[in-house]
Backbone:
């Protein structure tokens, strides 16, 4: 058995002026390049007028992280609502037409395609970095999937949609969510430098590829957007893919990228200041704003308009409707089974009254937790009410939070009999007179017990 | 405004490329390794060989007893999944298992000792080599195949989605807060079988790429990324498989050690990069045939045969859920309309600690119900390789909310269900071949087994236990081993059923059922406390917000 030996020391060949290593631009690759040049520019540059409408409606004196998030989430659309694959098709047709016109217009001119390619890649790199960092930071903090509410903990597994279960499952492990966010942030930063861009793009292909498949599997609503990011990453990686294939798969000596623009001092200065302000706005300012929002939401939670010291799950021991008592029942659509009072001003009622699921899974960034619709979206089994409490006259006004039951109101007079007992009397959504007696249940959740004691001890619950 | 620096390919580079392709005999000198490189290599060699070889006698026993003429997917899975590393000194250091990583540390210490002795030996005898290029190649081969086979064994249970089953009725009806975090993660994958397939494809692909020199880097990158995520998932959700998943991350990192500097040089430093690989030259015919033969055999066994066996498992015998079909007209969600115990009527109250609240009959031979009373909880992952349906516990592990799960044998002639509680205080040992590096709770299960064995003698006697179903009833019930599709039959299944079931104390009920078409069922009989029961059940058509997948494991 003998060995194939190769010389380990292989000095870099001397600089020679020849064009051997330059990308070979033949007629076909030039034509394809022109189409992709127009296509990617139209996908990433903010050319859609709606972008400016949104931009000018931002209150810059009170900038919210959600404003920056929306800037970062830009995609060109030809209609209202989120981007569709149809929009891609239109942009591609425009690119083909533009490419043909370009070919004709420059038929006798000599264009430096290496240079154009370089700058196109710069623009796409920054565009992708913005998007990835925007998502990375809301995961890092972690805002994207909050911890399940008490009502969520008291809802049957099968009463959630797939999308909601995905989000709840991530919500129980905030540090994992932060880890995923950290991966995205680091990757986004790798994109900001030419020499590390392909590594970042490769990580995004894998990471966001997984996000895309998850969106398909869990009926998420970011399928188009995640695939959009993947195409940008694929474009960035294309620049080095042949080199990497040659080096890692064919295991052959490989030449690096030889093209780099040469800048004057002034140009370099402009470049640095652009980069600095970019990082300041999309990373630092955005992170600061998220951090402020987290603190503010915590404050909003503590100073909410809800009943004080009332949060918990309650058994409905007495239920009267128009003076008729209804015994405990899991099948009666009128009979309440249990009631959750959240720490914020939400009350949810479990009964056998069916729920048309609110499946508007808009990405949950925006105002304070209490006003978010996250708790009600993708969930059946309970009706969710946002309430206003008048603590002087002891009245509650409940509004159904599900958009399919908009306008539904319940009015109650409440009496706090003791720390754990509460009675409500008033009218329900059908204007029937209702009286209920609520007794707080001291319920322990396996999720939380095991999080504390681990899985190695015997447990009875 | 821009220029480029341009460098020509030197003729030498082309020459080099020829060498790499393995055709040239070279006169180039092989560079000598630095002393520290040699020492490090010796340590790494011992370490990685030790963690690539099975360390438990049980594995060798199990593998040598495999019946290759009548395989079960788990036979090949067992080959692929084993504990490794130095375990002569136990699996803890100063009494701590270091979250399961103690074995790695012990192995590393032994490897360091061994590496230093090796160095001392070759230096005193003055037989020190200049380099270990070829030995390094073979070490990488061992690690590549160990990692490849291991991850393929793991990946196929996802590629044909049985590792995370779709939730049963009982699980669908359990509140979100009544699961452990581990259960929530497993279920979140179980509800999307197509996603599970995707994850399986990634793992199997990563493993397959490791079988070939030229795709090793790509395979190792995939393995590193995918398993790195799984390690974090296991820590976050307390999934219990963190050590085994870290193991693959470690192996993948080892395989990438030479590639990282290359990628760094080419992309970050933007320098000309000439990779150097040392491959043995298989000149002799027998060498080439042996190589091709071994490679083909590995691929045939772990990609072709295992795929087929896993497909059979998915179709007829999904290993985490019972595989025998339940009585056809006893399936679905039921409301407990009437409940009498010892002839006393109990009306429904969510606070009542005796009355059943809701009942499910699963597709398979399980009945579940809820009672508002604390009950002991099986906190394991509910995996392993049990053949008997009663020991397949995914439908109850990590689940609270007062849910009780009973397995039943149905005498469909006399309409009698013989029910046994699926919860067992002392769980069976699972993943026996895996040893250390198995599922969470392996250590506990090992101890549990010892406890169980010592208490067997004191157990209340096998005779009583075995006569609770009459011979006549057994005739009507049939033989469980044969109750699944013939195509799923295996020696492994036959062997487990041939063993007398270990004496185990389980709650038992014998209930007679009456029904026309399953919409109303009347159960009468005695429960585990010898109380008489009379229960009227009415089927409820419960609509779930969770939409079921088109892909379902098992045949019911």
Residues:
């Amino acid at each position: 058995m003998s060995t194939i030996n190769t010389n380990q020391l292989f000095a870099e060949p001397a600089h020679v002026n020849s064009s051997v290593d330059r990308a070979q631009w033949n007629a076909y690759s030039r034509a394809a390049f022109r189409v992709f040049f127009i296509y990617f520019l139209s996908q990433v540059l903010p050319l859609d007028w709606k972008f400016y409408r949104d931009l000018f409606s931002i209150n810059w004196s009170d900038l919210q992280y959600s404003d920056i998030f929306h800037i970062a989430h830009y995609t060109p659309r030809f209609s209202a609502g989120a981007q569709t694959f149809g929009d891609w098709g239109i942009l591609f047709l425009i690119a083909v037409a533009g490419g043909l016109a370009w070919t004709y217009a420059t038929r006798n001119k000599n264009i430096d395609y290496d240079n154009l390619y370089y700058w196109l890649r710069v623009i796409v790199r920054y565009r992708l970095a913005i998007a990835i960092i925007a998502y990375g930071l809301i995961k890092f903090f972690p805002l994207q999937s909050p911890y399940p509410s008490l009502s969520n903990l008291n809802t049957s597994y099968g009463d959630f949609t797939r999308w909601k279960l995905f989000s709840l499952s991530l919500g129980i492990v905030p540090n994992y969510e932060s880890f995923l966010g950290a991966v995205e942030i680091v990757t986004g930063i790798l994109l900001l430098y030419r020499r590390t861009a392909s590594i970042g793009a490769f990580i995004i292909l894998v990471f966001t590829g997984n996000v895309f498949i998850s969106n398909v599997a869990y009926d998420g609503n970011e399928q188009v957007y995640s695939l959009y990011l993947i195409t940008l990453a694929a474009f960035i990686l294309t620049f080095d893919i042949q080199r990497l294939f040659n080096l890692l798969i064919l295991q052959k000596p490989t030449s690096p990228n030889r093209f780099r623009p040469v800048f004057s001092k002034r140009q370099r200065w402009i470049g640095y200041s652009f980069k600095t302000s970019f990082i300041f706005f999309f990373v630092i300012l955005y992170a600061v704003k998220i951090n402020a929002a987290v603190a503010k939401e915590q404050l909003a939670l503590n100073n909410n308009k809800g009943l004080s010291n009332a949060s918990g799950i309650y058994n409905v021991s007495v239920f009267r409707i128009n003076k008729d008592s209804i015994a405990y029942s899991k099948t009666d659509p009128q009979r309440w089974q249990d009631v959750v009072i959240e720490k914020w001003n939400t009350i949810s009622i479990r009964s056998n009254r069916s729920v048309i699921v609110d499946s508007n899974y808009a990405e949950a960034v925006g105002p304070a937790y209490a006003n978010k619709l996250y708790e009600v979206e993708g969930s059946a089994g309970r009706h969710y009410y946002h309430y206003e409490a008048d603590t002087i006259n002891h009245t509650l006004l409940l509004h159904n939070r599900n958009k399919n039951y908009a306008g539904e109101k319940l009015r109650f007079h409440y009496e706090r009999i003791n720390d754990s007992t509460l009675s409500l009397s008033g009218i329900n959504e059908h204007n029937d007179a209702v009286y209920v007696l609520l007794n707080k249940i001291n319920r322990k959740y396996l999720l939380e017990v095991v999080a504390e004691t681990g899985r190695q001890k015997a447990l009875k619950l | 405004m821009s220029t480029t620096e341009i460098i020509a390919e030197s003729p030498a580079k082309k020459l080099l490329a020829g060498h790499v392709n393995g055709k040239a005999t070279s006169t180039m000198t092989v560079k000598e390794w630095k002393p520290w490189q040699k020492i490090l290599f010796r340590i790494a060699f011992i370490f990685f060989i030790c963690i690539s070889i099975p360390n438990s006698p049980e594995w060798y026993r199990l593998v040598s007893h495999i019946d290759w003429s009548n395989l079960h997917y788990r036979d090949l899975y067992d080959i692929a999944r084993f504990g490794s590393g130095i375990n002569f000194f136990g699996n803890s250091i100063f009494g701590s298992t270091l979250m399961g990583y103690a074995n790695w540390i012990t192995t590393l210490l032994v490897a360091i000792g061994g590496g230093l002795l090796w160095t001392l030996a070759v230096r005193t005898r003055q037989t020190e080599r200049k380099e270990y290029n070829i030995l390094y190649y073979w070490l990488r081969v061992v690690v590549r195949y160990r990692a490849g086979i291991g991850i393929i064994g793991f990946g196929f249970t996802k590629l044909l989605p049985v590792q995370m089953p779709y939730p049963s009725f009982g699980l669908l009806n359990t509140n979100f807060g009544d699961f452990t975090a581990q259960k929530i993660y497993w279920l979140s994958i179980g509800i999307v079988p197509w996603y599970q397939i995707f994850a399986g494809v990634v793992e199997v692909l990563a493993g397959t790429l490791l079988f070939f020199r030229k795709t090793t880097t790509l395979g190792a990158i995939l393995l590193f990324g995918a398993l790195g995520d799984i390690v974090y998932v296991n820590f976050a959700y307390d999934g219990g498989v963190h050590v085994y998943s870290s193991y693959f991350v470690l192996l993948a990192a080892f395989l990438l050690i030479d590639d990282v500097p290359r990628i760094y040089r080419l992309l970050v430093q933007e320098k000309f990069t000439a990779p150097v690989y040392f491959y043995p030259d298989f000149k002799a015919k027998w060498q080439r045939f042996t190589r091709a033969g071994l490679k083909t055999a590995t691929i045939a066994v772990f990609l072709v045969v295992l795929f087929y066996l896993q497909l059979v498992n998915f179709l007829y015998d999904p290993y985490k859920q019972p595989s025998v079909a339940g009585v056809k007209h006893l399936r679905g969600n039921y409301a407990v309309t009437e409940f009498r115990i010892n002839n006393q009527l109990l009306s429904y109250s969510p606070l009542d600690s005796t009355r059943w609240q809701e009942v499910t009959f699963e597709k398979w031979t399980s009945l579940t119900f809820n009672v508002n009373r604390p009950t002991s909880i099986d906190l394991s992952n509910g995996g392993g390789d049990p053949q008997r349906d009663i020991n397949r516990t995914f439908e109850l592990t990590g689940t609270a909310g007062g849910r009780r799960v009973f397995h039943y044998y149905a005498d469909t002639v006399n309409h009698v269900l013989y029910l046994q509680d699926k919860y067992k205080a002392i769980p069976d040992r699972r993943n026996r071949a895996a040893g250390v590096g198995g599922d969470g709770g392996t250590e506990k299960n090992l101890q549990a087994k010892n406890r169980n064995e010592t208490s067997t003698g004191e157990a209340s006697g096998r005779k009583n236990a075995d006569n609770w179903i009459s011979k006549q009833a057994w005739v009507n019930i049939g033989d469980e081993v044969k109750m699944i599709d013939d195509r799923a039959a295996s020696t492994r299944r036959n062997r487990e059923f041939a063993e007398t079931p270990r004496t185990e104390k389980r709650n038992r009920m014998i209930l007679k059922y009456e029904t026309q078409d399953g919409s109303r069922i009347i159960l009468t009989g005695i429960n585990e406390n010898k109380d008489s029961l009379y229960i009227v059940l009415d089927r409820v058509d419960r609509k779930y917000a969770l939409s079921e997948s088109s892909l379902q494991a098992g045949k019911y």
Observations:
- The CA atoms of residues 148 and 207 of chain B lie 4 Å apart.
- The mean pLDDT of chain B is 88.
